[in-house]
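Feature request, filed as a ticket because there's no other form

It would be nice if the structure record came with a short human-readable summary line next to the tokens. Right now we just get the raw output. Example of a typical job, pasted below so the devs can see what we mean:
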Amino acid sequence: MAAAIGLDATGVDAASTAVTIARRKANERDLRARFLTWNALQLADLGESFDTVVDCGLFHVFDDLDRPRFVAALRDSTPVGAWYYMLCFSDLEPGDWGPRRIQQDEIQVSFSDGWRVEEIEPATIEITVAPGTVRAWLASILRI
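Raw output as currently delivered:
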């Protein structure tokens, strides 16, 4: 998405298969983007700074111990004024299959130090299994 509008883009995923697929799609679309197989809990170890971070389905996979580690790594990898956009499973999604459901207050608490949660709005995530979509939260969070 970012590469398609001419921005520098780096994709990070712990799954090498996902990175391989992303590289193939970028090549097919003649887009320049960098893709790394990397642990997001160690994002700061890249030694890079990101002005915008887009998270589609990552935050909700972290447990209570890893969530603060991820937020700290994210904070260490973004300058003041950077934006973090997060799409995560919502606690409004019924059932207990799939990843953890996130409550709005969990987002607020997780991003209370060094961040300002500007907006959390209802959204959906498209998934590859039935039911096809799930209820989600789309959060816009500013690094302060």
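Something like this underneath would help us a lot:
Residues 16-28 form the longest helix (13 residues).
The two ends are 25 Å apart (CA to CA).
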